[in-house]
Amino acid sequence: MVDYIGIESIQRIVAQRGAAAFIEGLAAEIELDYRRWNDFDKSARHAIHSPDGVIELMPTSDGHQYSFKYVNGHPKNTELGLLTVTAFGVLADVDTGYPLLLSELTITTALRTAAMSALAAKWMARPDSRVMALIGNGAQSEFQAIAFHHMLGIRELRLFDIDAAASDKLARNLQAMALPGLRVSLCRSAAEAVQGADIVTTITADKRNAVILTPEMIRPGMHLNAVGGDCPGKTELHADILLRQDARVVVEFEPQSRIEGEIQQMPADFGVAEFADVLKGTAQGRASAAEVTIFDSVGFALEDYSALRYLHKLQLQNPRNRQQIDLVPHLDNPKNLFGLLAPAAAQSGTQARPAAAAQARNTSTELAG
Q1: What is the DSSP letter of 195?
Q2: Of 226, 222, 65, 69, which Cα lies nearest the Cα of 135?
């Protein structure tokens, strides 16, 4: 039996802790894993592109556990009433290759993206940052708002989206959450939204080289959390922003960011630091209050590894959260896989272990509540 987390389970697990506390706990797990960066087998994600979107696999391993995420990105899906991004993932034991957990990652990806954004900002933004512009108010925007309010102390959010209905939706949801001390303003343009902002988060969905931020919008001391550029040909920042003399650019995994991030616009010798280097102290997140810091975030497999491990830990801490599925067969004779399908095998003891299987099913039912 393999542990399983579906939509109802992730709703329950997050509700038990609260979204803000869940994001903060996940950010702590991500930081711990980035601090052991050299333990991980790392590669750029494998992507299959089509005219309307992309499907990607994101694997990594620390030699003890392995994980992968399946994720898509299809911006036109909303026109069909579908999500732009969906995902699921697997956590497995390296020694046996057996899966330990199969989990939804659609909601969890939004949570982990917000956790990573806020974690990077803790190391890169000015400590006195209190105003954030949030440009792109779609499916991930509430998660970003919660993370920055809770972990960075943001007290004013300035919202803009080319779809005014998306901004209205975000404003309503934030009002319903009643985040203490948070003021929300609806803006008529990206330029208006960034006025007076300490942090600017861009998280748009269009699959193109967009110019969401232009050089004249940027002020000394800003931190730019560029989240929406996450595939070849998809960017949000004007290239001249990256070339500013006072700009400092940090990425997750440079080989992947060269393909998919804002720095795909830059020559190969354009200098960046990896976030793990910031944590190790071999690179700075911010050298002065006047610097413009840019977190060029595309999402990396280590963050999904952290999320799956964190979810599994929370699931096992509360037996009522635990569900299992019979994804992998258990055999009395592991060399006789065909015995599962042969009727005669039922009488020769070569089928799946009936007592163990029944016991596992009963345990699963009890744990599921």
Answers
A1: T
A2: 226
Fold of 126-299: Rossmann fold (3.40.50)
Cβ 340 vs Cβ 352: under 8 Å: yes
Residue identified by tokens 């004779």 is 333
Q: Is residue 366 pLDDT above 80, yes or no?
A: no
Domain spans in the chain, listed from the N-terminal domain onward: 2-107+303-328, 126-299
Question: Considering only CA atoms, which of 186, 180, 218 is closest in space to residue 199?
Answer: 218
Q: Which pLDDT tens digit goes with each residue over 50-99?
A: 999 999 999 999 999 999 999 999 989 999 999 999 999 999 999 999 99
Identity of the residue numbered 57: L
In the chain, % of residues over pLDDT 90: 86
In order of 82, 88, 99, 112, 172, the CA distances from 20 in angstroms are: 26, 22, 29, 12, 18
pLDDT digits (tens, 9 = 90+) for 276-294: 999 999 999 999 999 999 9
CATH number for the segment(s) 2-107+303-328: 3.30.1780.10
Confidence of residue 319 (pLDDT cuts 50, 70, 90): confident
pLDDT averaged over the chain? 92
Q: Which residues are catalytic?
A: 230
Label residue 97 left, alpha or beta by phi (over 0 means left) and psi (-120 to 50 means alpha).
left
